[in-house]
Specification:
single chain; 329 residues; alpha/beta; 6-stranded mixed sheet; binds zinc ion
């Protein structure tokens, strides 16, 4: 069989984040296309230029830039690359406003994060510290005009291939995967990673949609699991992720992820059997000090699994003095 990834080159670009390098993909087709850009740093730009040169290309040669989702390590260089190349910038229609005004959108995300952290028992001094860390990260972001807004189900056409556009929210609300049905190749962004499970980070819903039932908090893990079910059903031969190695057995990997989420939900249910706890207290029991240094990440993890338990009627929510606790039901 021919190589399903023929004509697609992985360019691994350094990031300042714990996740390590981000995989950008050069699609050597007409138009010449880059999927994701790396963060906005001199080091990332240098590495990208070198990697392109190894493929006999320059930034100025790019004709199309595609962004998979709203995270800073995937879109930071979009403005610089679009300006230098004149490439069209393509993104899911719901993602476009976030790319066009990254700073203001990130600020609003931080406001939601702050309210959520306080409501779930994280001390104010931790919340304040995290907010300033988040602000300092913002310099790695960037903005550009999205010249082509892709509705879910759209098709990106090339001389030698077609990529179908599928919205698969969960890791972030804007996660988009690009599917080459003919070759069985899925460009997946951070929707599915091999070496780590993608965290279902709680973010503002897109497109001005109102919140979900209850306190309006988006149910990120439940959304993510629904998206993974759709991806599992795809006859993919190869998944090209936003970090780490390519994935060949995607259905087995998704089954592992589902089993892991069940185990974690079960563990949390066990913790709540003794006494009511806030999401912050649950995170501390599970991860100790990481619940402080990575407070928002671990809060998102805990709330995602609490949502599974709430959905099954196994726990209930108690609110006292503006702080939420959960207890076994
Ligand atoms: Zn991401």
């Amino acid at each position: 069989m021919t190589d399903p990834a023929a004509g697609i080159h992985c360019l691994a670009i350094p990031t300042p984040f714990a996740v390590g390098r981000v995989n950008c993909y050069l699609i050597d087709d007409d138009p010449l296309t880059l999927v994701d850009t790396g963060p906005n740093s001199g080091k990332a730009l240098d590495t990208l230029e070198t990697a392109l040169r190894e493929q006999g290309r320059r930034i100025e040669d790019l004709e199309r830039i595609v962004i998979t989702h709203q995270h800073i390590d995937h879109l930071g260089l979009v403005g610089i690359l679009a300006r230098r190349s004149g490439a069209e910038v393509c993104a899911l229609d719901l993602l476009a406003p976030l790319i066009e005004d990254f700073g203001a959108e990130a600020e609003r995300d931080d406001e939601l994060a702050e309210a959520l952290m306080l409501r779930h028992g994280i001390p104010r001094e931790v919340v304040t510290a995290l907010r300033s860390v988040s602000r300092s990260f913002r310099a790695w972001g960037g903005s550009a005009e999205v010249t082509r807004r892709l509705p879910d189900g759209d098709r990106l056409e090339f001389r030698d291939r077609v990529l179908e556009v599928h919205h698969r929210p969960g890791h972030s609300p804007s996660d988009t995967v690009f599917w080459d049905a003919e070759r069985g190749v899925l460009l997946a962004g951070d929707h599915l990673l091999k070496h780590i499970s993608s965290n279902p980070l709680i973010s503002r819903p897109l497109g001005g949609k109102s919140g979900e039932p209850g306190d309006g908090r988006p149910r990120a893990l439940m959304t993510y699991m629904a998206s993974m079910r759709e991806t599992r059903a795809m006859p993919a031969r190869l998944v090209l992720p936003g970090h780490g190695e390519p994935i060949e057995a995607h259905a087995a990997l998704i089954d592992e992820r589902f089993a892991m989420h069940e185990r974690r939900a079960g563990k949390i249910a066990g913790l709540l059997a003794g006494e009511p706890r806030s999401a912050y207290e649950i995170a501390q029991s599970l991860w100790g000090n990481v619940a402080v240094t990575q407070a928002y990440l671990t809060l998102s993890e805990v709330l995602g699994h609490v949502d599974l338990l709430l959905d099954r009627g196994l726990v209930r929510e108690l609110e006292v003095g503006g702080v939420v606790r959960y207890e076994a039901h």
